[in-house]
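SAMPLE LOG
Freezer: B-3
Tube label: C17
Construct: single chain, 86 aa
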Amino acid sequence: MAIGSKNLDAESLRDKSDADLVEELGKAKETLFNLRFQAATGQLESHGRLKAVRRDIARIYTIMRERELGITPAPQAEKAAKEDAA
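STRUCTURE (predicted):
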């Protein structure tokens, strides 16, 4: 089983637009900051959550890089390509 948030698996991230990915990245970075702060003050209950959020951030960056390189198209680009072919 993959480590990370349930709603941030690779398939669901690939279905999101670029703007949504940037928004998710911001949320994940904010969550990571808060978790690090809790760890530093001794209030963190689940240290595994730090690892999960770091992996979520890496997963988002991977999807963004794939789109930048043209490996996987953005969802709106797929729709436009299908409409052009029809």
